[in-house]
Design a protein that fits this description.
- The protein folds into 3 domains: 1-203, no CATH class; 217-307, Orthogonal Bundle (Helix Hairpins); 315-449, Histidine kinase-like ATPase, C-terminal domain (Heat Shock Protein 90, 2-Layer Sandwich).
- It contains 11 helices and 11 strands.
- The protein has helices at 2-9, 13-48, 51-72, 79-88, 112-121, 161-202, 217-272, 278-309, 322-339, 360-377, 415-426; strands at 92-98, 101-105, 137-143, 146-154, 318-321, 343-348, 355-358, 383-391, 394-402, 430-436, 439-449.
- The strands form 2 sheets. Strands 5, 6, 7, 8, 9, 10 and 11 form a 7-stranded mixed sheet that branches. Strands 2-1-4-3 form a 4-stranded antiparallel sheet.
- A hairpin with a 2-residue loop joins strand 3 (137-143) and strand 4 (146-154).
- Helix 2 (13-48) packs antiparallel against helix 6 (161-202) and helix 10 (360-377) packs antiparallel against helix 11.
- The longest helix is centred in the middle third of the chain and has 56 residues, at 217-272.
- It starts with a helix and ends with a strand.
- It is a multi-pass membrane protein.
- Keywords: ATP-binding, Cell membrane, Kinase, Membrane, Nucleotide-binding, Phosphoprotein, Transferase, Transmembrane, Transmembrane helix, Two-component regulatory system.
- It catalyses: ATP + protein L-histidine = ADP + protein N-phospho-L-histidine.
């Protein structure tokens, strides 16, 4: 009951609009009822008030009354029996009299007992006043105890009252339904339009959107369906793009692996066939080892990429002190680069404490990939510059390094970079890169915890 009252106190916009339509339809039905009953009552009155109709039907009533009197041997003073006939013909005002002496009157039939007593005590007593209405008609009647007369004033239009009420109620109900459906037609048409739009979206139509109309719950429903469709299409496009990218990488990587694998097999064949000296065997073993490690690195990159783009990839986020975490990550990266002969320069601009909620293992994997690429392709006589700062709720790590100007053998077709990009995106950040003027720039953003 309480929940019902709460809902009634906070009606939805759609329910208010429907209630408005109900009120309008009810008002139209009421006006229809009044108009129909008045018109039909007026029509019935005009028909029954016609002289020929009135005279013909009053004569029939007089004949019917005479038959009743004859069949039941009614005396002129038998007001109770006469009253029974009058009750059946309730629309008739009847007066029974003899030489202006009234024995029965419809208006006074409740006082029949008093009239009988007065008549018995005073035989010459005349009860009531004989009033002759302009439309009243007089007919002679033969009673069981003598002749008399009746004065009839009939309201024939009253017989149609029930029919008029029923027809009026029926037509007003039809009017209510018609008006309500007309007012509701816009909403029903919009619901059908939403349903049609859902079927179109089910077919995978990319550019279709359900039109937005009004400001009620149907508008919100259509808007939600459009947003859901757009989100679903983006997700499908992203999956298709990743699948296409994965296919291209696997194809290119398969070709790239075949070359070192052929070299390894060639060197091993030479060694096992005894077609080389001991010194050459050592040399060939070293070359085969380098090619084997090269293939291992390629497979590691492929594994990282497949792991980062797979549906089963999930982050194991934990909360860390941001300054402490990034200080350690940048320190490990600079230490590794300096061990390989690079000079580094770090600009750490964060002076306020902050926290991050991230997967440290994956974050370290990304920075290791950045370091590996710098070791492979950067000039050792240049400076690797790193900048760490906070911006718009993100921890920004920007890295710049010079690129060697000689021809570089591409070993992995950027698989590690793509894997890093997917990992950071799943953390809620971004990973972008660009190169120009023999410099390579990496921009990484990781969301900080509010």
């Amino acid at each position: 009951m309480i929940n019902f009252l709460k809902k009634m106190a906070n009606p939805t916009r759609l329910s208010l609009a429907t209630l408005y339509d109900v009120v309008i339809a009810a008002a139209a039905a009421f006006l229809c009822y009044v108009a129909v009953t008045n018109a039909m009552g007026l029509l019935a009155g005009m028909m029954t008030d016609q002289k020929n109709y009135y005279e013909r039907h009053t004569k029939l009533l007089a004949e019917e009354f005479q038959d009743f009197v004859t069949e039941n041997h009614v005396e002129i003073g038998d007001g109770e029996t006469i009253g029974d006939w009058n009750s059946e013909n309730w629309y008739v005002f009847l007066t029974v009299y003899q030489r202006d002496r009234i024995y029965y009157n419809t208006m006074d039939r409740d006082n029949e007992k008093l009239k009988t007593e007065l008549k018995d005590e005073h035989p010459g007593f005349q009860y009531g006043y004989l009033y002759r209405h302009g439309t009243a008609v007089t007919y002679p009647v033969k009673f069981a105890d003598g002749d008399g007369e009746i004065l009839i004033r009939a309201y024939f239009e009253a017989r149609f009252r029930t029919l008029i009420l029923v027809l009026g109620a029926g037509l007003s109900a039809v009017c209510f339904v018609v008006v309500f459906l007309v007012l509701l037609q816009k909403k029903l048409a919009y619901i059908r339009q939403i349903e049609k739009g859902i079927h179109i979206l089910e077919t995978g139509s990319r550019g279709y959107e359900i039109p937005l109309k009004g400001r009620d719950e149907l508008y919100s429903l259509a808007d939600s369906i459009n947003q859901m469709s757009e989100s679903l299409h983006k997700e499908i496009e992203e999956k298709d793009r990743i699948e296409k990218e994965r296919s291209e990488i696997v194809t290119a990587l398969s070709h790239d692996i075949r070359t070192p694998l052929t070299s390894v097999l060639f060197y091993l064949d030479l060694i096992t066939a005894g077609k080389c000296t001991a010194d050459e065997s050592v040399l060939y073993m070293e070359k085969a080892k380098r090619q084997a490690y090269h293939m291992k690195n390629l497979m590691d990159d492929l594994f990282s990429y497949s792991y980062a783009t797979g549906d089963r990839f999930s982050l194991k986020n934990e909360e860390y002190d941001g300054n402490e975490l990034f200080g350690q990550l940048i320190g490990d990266l600079t230490e590794s680069l300096e061990e390989h002969g690079f000079r580094t320069e770090v600009c750490y601009e964060i002076e306020t404490p902050f926290a991050v909620e991230t997967d440290v293992v994956q974050l370290k994997r990304v920075l290791n990939n950045i370091g590996t690429n710098i070791e492979k392709y950067a000039r050792r006589d240049g400076i690797v510059s790193m900048e760490v700062r906070l911006s718009d709720g993100f921890v920004c790590l920007n890295i710049e390094n010079p690129i060697r100007d000689e021809e570089i053998e591409v070993e992995s077709y950027g698989i590690g970079v793509k894997a890093s990009e997917r990992m950071i995106e799943k953390m809620g950040g971004s990973f972008t890169y660009e190169s120009h003027d023999y410099h390579y720039y990496t921009f990484m953003k990781v969301p900080k915890k509010d």
